[in-house]
Model the fold of this input.
Amino acid sequence: MGNTKPTLLVLAAGIGSRYGGLKQIDSVGPNGEVVLDYSVYDALRAGFGKIVFVIRRDIETDFKEIVGRKYEGNAEVRYVFQELGRLPSGYSVPAERTKPWGTAHATLVAEEVIEEPFAVINADDYYGFSAFRLMGDYLSRQSEGGTDYAMVGFALRDTLSEHGHVARGICQCDDRGKLVRVEERTKIIKAGCGATYIDEDGAPHPLSGDEVVSMNFWGFTPSLFPYLHEHFALFLAENLGNPKAEFFIPTVIDGLISQRITTVEVLPTKSAWYGITYKEDKPFVIDGIRSLVEKGEYPDKLF
Done:
């Protein structure tokens, strides 16, 4: 059984490039709060004890000043860097590679500062308090060396945009609520109460909206890191020459499930997920946060 507070690992290396600098990060709360502020606030009240940010060197000063400094009085805060050159020995970065190596690589670079069960989230997604409570409760029961993992599962209809297509990992679960596989669907469009996904040939396929999807909210123990090393080496052997290939968490997890190395418990939540996929999504997110503040789920000012 775990006896230490779990850690929250926040994947934030992409944040500056997406916004053209950190000062432009979208504020969505009544006092200029960004989505990440709500995630950190929720994690701390759900029992997480340490926050680790994966960032890039070129945003380090701004990130610490604008984002990280707010939290330092409330939790232990650490920073690690996702860099293209963080590769196994014998490999070097191809000249045409500019894209980061992906979410599984971003998780791997945090190995040096994580010794306890930990959750992984995206920096710019709003997941809701119940999602953090579910994951915090799960992780607090795990031992550091255990190989059972978890994932918060959202209903597809709660994660769609009114303003264009989205990519989602659609989950297949067994009758015990364990993950069987994650299938990436890159073009899902809202359609009434459900959705439609468009396949590579342009053919539409109806979805009910009840499907469980992964929004990159995972729960792991440090036992994951050796598997990430092993799978990253395999990924590089196959993909080093492809400048757009990325090493993703679901790919690793699919492999570990199929090899029967791990089981992944899906923790279903009715939480609304908010994210700004399109600029037109921003007013909807602001309204959603305002409503939660008015209901008393958050204070007017978080930090």
Summary: Residues 7-294 form a domain with the Spore Coat Polysaccharide Biosynthesis Protein SpsA; Chain A fold (CATH 3.90.550.10). The mean pLDDT is 91.
